[in-house]
Amino acid sequence: MVREIASEPFDLLQGPLYRVNLLRRAPDDHVFVFTIHHAIGDGWTLGLFVQELCLAYIQRARGMKDPLPVVPQTYSAWGAVERAFWQPSELQPRIAFWKSHLAGYRRLWSALEGPVTASGSHVRLVSHFPAELAKASRELARRSSATLFSTLLVAFQVAFARWAKTDDVLVGTPVANRTKQVTKETMGYYAGIVPIRGPVNVEKTFSASLREMHQKTADCFANAIPFAELAQALGDAGAPGHNPIFEIRFALQNHPIPDVALPGLSAKLRMRSTGTARYHLACEVTEEGEQLEVVWLFRPQLFQQAEVENLGRLFESVLATACRTPEARVAALTESSS
User: Fold this and answer.
1) Which one, 92, 106, 150, 159, has least CB within 10 Å?
2) Nearest-angstrom CA–CA distance, 190 and 44
């Protein structure tokens, strides 16, 4: 029932672009389902919504009026500021960076027979990296003066390169775009997407690859521009069922998620993306307590489930081996995962 509710299409012309359902399973057991279209909210928005929903519930239960704080800046006001900022003088140096960064990249699946339907079906797989591996990954990132994102990304690139038989891996990764305090307190779709290219050199060590990728991700984030502007500048509008610029999405979801604390109630929070497969392949890692949840989303027209399951095992194996022996050559990491 929840999946059916969440999968029901929105009317983008008439709206609204969100739905609220309360399902009764027993007199003392209910499921509150909040569904939102990505056009009006991102992952950070969901955290804010949960926080304010809990606050409103508590305050209403106490008989207080107007319980929610005043929004510091409307989403439309932020949009106006953004449009005014992105003038040619700001765009051109960044566009030059991207043309250099992406020069010569060849799509992996450019020879598909016919278009993949953009609204086509997808398959979703979920696994977990154990707490010990998550802890070791964070420790490796700390010792390397890198981030957990960079550490996971390099391991993913190494695994994917072996799996897809390539040495040039391009992914798109979301960025929150909430550096200012006012944006951290406002609901809306602020997130952007940044392409990150990682040539995989099997002769380098994992630690050297991590140092390079950490700097590369910093450069990419510093040169981020609206994705539509980037696609236009590169002359890559995509095609039906084929995303512009990149085909693979990789993300680490670590935006703040508040605890659900409601007096008199016992509640558990579950967040899930139910969108169609906008990319050929997506890997989303979420910090879930001490573990790392890994969600794969892929188009069955292109991949068998067993193939993606193999990629998932390879990703975990490469990461675990790198955490134990970060000075090992990349080739050795994949050989041990054969």
Assistant:
1) 106
2) 9
